Amino acid sequence: xxxxxxxxxxxxxxxxxxxxxxxxxxxxxxxxxxxxxxxxxxxxxxxxxxxxxxxxxxxxxxxxxxxxxxxxxxxxxxxxxxxxxxxxxxxxxxxxxxxxxxxxxxxxxxxxxxxxxxxxxxxxxxxxxxxxxxxxxxxxxxxxxxxxxxxxxxxxxxxxxxxxxxxxxxxxxxxxxxxxxxxxxxxxxxxxxxxxxxxxxxxxxxxxxxxxxxxxxxxx
Length: 220
Fold this sequence. Notes:
It is a single chain. This protein has one domain (4-218): Alpha-Beta Complex (Spore Coat Polysaccharide Biosynthesis Protein SpsA, Chain A). The chain contains eight helices and seven strands, in the order βααβαβαβαββαβαα. It has helices at residues 22-28, 30-50, 70-77, 90-101, 119-131, 168-178, 196-204, 210-217, and strands at 4-13, 53-61, 81-84, 107-110, 134-139, 144-149, 183-189.
């Protein structure tokens, strides 16, 4: 397949114990939660690296020196352009990341909470983005896991949207439409926030994925 003129942007947080997946950590402990977050991030980066896109960017926050699987993450990031997240709240950081990652291509942005994402699914999303004004993939908890837009200006609507709520996805879709941007929806995915999410996401991952191996090894 030819290279698609799209930038895939991964918005990520260094999986530091005590700071990574805090809702999950309340049940499984800080270290295990960080190990799971690291596995999810690495599986996500593998999928992005295998997708036939023109550019790959990671907007990163946190300290990799203290992160789980720090060496593996640093090695994987060598295949990416890494930029720092900036902004006070998560919504601002998302909008700013779109602006900072823009290099003339449409930007397809994902997080690190859906390790079941595949290069094939990202390819479908990128192709849809090239054919439509925007793409949005809803998360089963009411948020969203992927957003694709053609310009940083189209992502500005994120600044006014409350994040991590049960209606974040719906509000994002409405905000895009309010700005005259009709978004095509793509596959909905479960993301990883709490312990009840682990089995659902693991079942959607490849059996030999890092996420599957780490969660099985933890007995979860």
